[in-house]
Write a structure and sequence with these properties.
Number of strands: 2
Strand content: 5-15%
Order of helices and strands: HHEEH
Helix content: over 70%
Strand order of the largest sheet: 1-2
Oligomer: single chain
Shape: elongated
Radius of gyration: 26 Å
Structural class: mainly alpha
Number of helices: 3
């Protein structure tokens, strides 16, 4: 008689399924890379175009923000928030505007960096 405990059958089956799914997915990805079809490459090209347009837009917005920061004199700026229902909120306090601009600049820089990474890492 053995003193070794056996795992319940349900857990063995679950482990087998959990291991097979990533292997099957990896095999599919390898097949796509090694033997791409014209259709799959065109779909990837469309996806790449979308990523590229998104990145161009973000770079443009980053440039606009930098121009705004460079041209500000600390006296006449105001920030207006407007929602889809037409409600507006206006701020002209320079301290508040500087804090808002710093948050916008940091977030936009992070989003642009992520977008750039996606474009660089993308494979057609």
């Amino acid at each position: 008689m053995s003193t070794t405990k056996e795992a319940p059958k349900g857990k063995e089956q679950q482990k087998g399924i959990a291991i097979l799914k990533p292997v099957e997915r990896a095999k599919t990805n390898i097949d796509d890379v090694l033997n791409p079809t014209a259709e799959s490459r065109l779909k990837k090209l469309d996806t790449f175009k979308i990523l590229a347009e998104k990145h161009k837009y973000l770079v443009s917005k980053n440039d606009d923000l930098q121009k705004f920061i460079a041209s500000s004199d600390g006296m006449k700026e105001k920030v207006i928030l407007k929602n889809s229902q037409g409600f507006e909120f206006e701020v002209s306090n320079s301290s508040v505007i500087n804090k808002v601009i710093n948050v916008m600049e940091n977030e936009l820089q992070q989003i642009t960096s992520n977008s750039e990474r996606q474009v660089i890492d993308f494979t057609i």
